[in-house]
Specification:
Layout: H1 3-35, H2 44-55, H3 76-85, H4 97-108, H5 119-128, H6 135-151, H7 154-164, E1 166-168, E2 171-172, H8 173-182, H9 191-199, H10 214-229
Helix pairs in contact: 1-6, 3-9, 3-10, 5-6, 5-7, 9-10
């Protein structure tokens, strides 16, 4: 076929591809915008866990979650999560560059690879994406992290995170966790209880809030100390000290 006939076809394909990309960008941003105001009805991680239970025939598996607004959660809970997971959360714009550099240096030196994900990145991953370490997933995680940071205030990011974070096998969010482990409303959780919840976040199916190992108890104690050093709940309410604790 002569080139004169192939060129219009190529142009049409490029235009179609550009329209698809623009549609994806618009729809993904619209979804993030809606979720700034509307509680997520589920998350990608919850759907993945439920599907896995069905595939593997886990007959007794039960997914537990219910949304709890920010003002109905003890202020110790978001503080504990920040103290344990991402102490620079009030100051960064979605990515902790120092932690990323440290993780790269550790990998170059042959040391164990350390996680460098912020709460914003974890929220993006848990809400929209699947578990895994592919470059495609990490790229999408970065994209949704930027959208979330541009569209949501910090309080909303924390509110969503503490409502979708896995805190036990099939237990998602502070509402279900406080009911299951402490038999009380999230608003009544103490600083020590909040620290114990946050202590299992690195591996919530291996670590247990209700049957804490020595590691969980040590980590909860460390998180409790960090909560005090950060200055208490004021740290995440806009009255934080100049620098995070170390």
């Amino acid at each position: 076929m002569p080139p004169v006939f192939r060129r219009p076809l190529l142009i049409r394909l490029l235009r179609s591809l550009a329209l698809l990309v623009l549609a994806w960008l618009a729809l993904s941003w619209l979804l993030v915008l809606v979720l700034r105001f509307v509680p997520p009805w589920t998350s990608a991680v919850m759907l993945e866990r439920q599907l896995g239970a069905w595939v593997h025939g886990e007959q007794d598996f039960q997914l537990r979650r219910h949304w709890v607004p920010w003002n109905q959660v003890s202020p110790w809970v978001p503080l504990a999560m920040v103290a344990g997971e991402d102490q620079k959360f009030p100051y960064h714009h979605g990515f902790d560059l120092d932690s990323i550099h440290n993780a790269i240096d550790a990998a170059d030196d042959g040391r164990r690879l350390r996680g460098a994900s912020t709460i914003s990145q974890q929220t993006a991953k848990n809400l929209f994406l699947w578990n895994g370490r592919s470059f495609v997933r990490k790229g999408l995680e970065a994209y949704f992290t930027v959208l979330i940071e541009l569209t949501w205030p910090k309080q909303r990011i924390l509110e969503v995170y503490m409502n979708i974070a896995e805190l036990g096998n099939g237990i998602y969010g502070v509402g279900a966790a406080s009911d299951t482990y402490f038999h009380m409303a999230p608003a009544r959780l103490s600083a020590a209880q909040a620290a114990q919840l946050a202590a299992v976040l690195p591996s919530p199916r291996r670590l247990h809030v209700d049957r804490p190992s020595a590691y969980v108890l040590r980590r909860a104690g460390w998180i409790r100390q960090q909560m005090d050093q950060l200055g208490g709940p004021a740290y995440i309410e806009g009255h934080a000290p100049a620098h995070p604790a170390h």
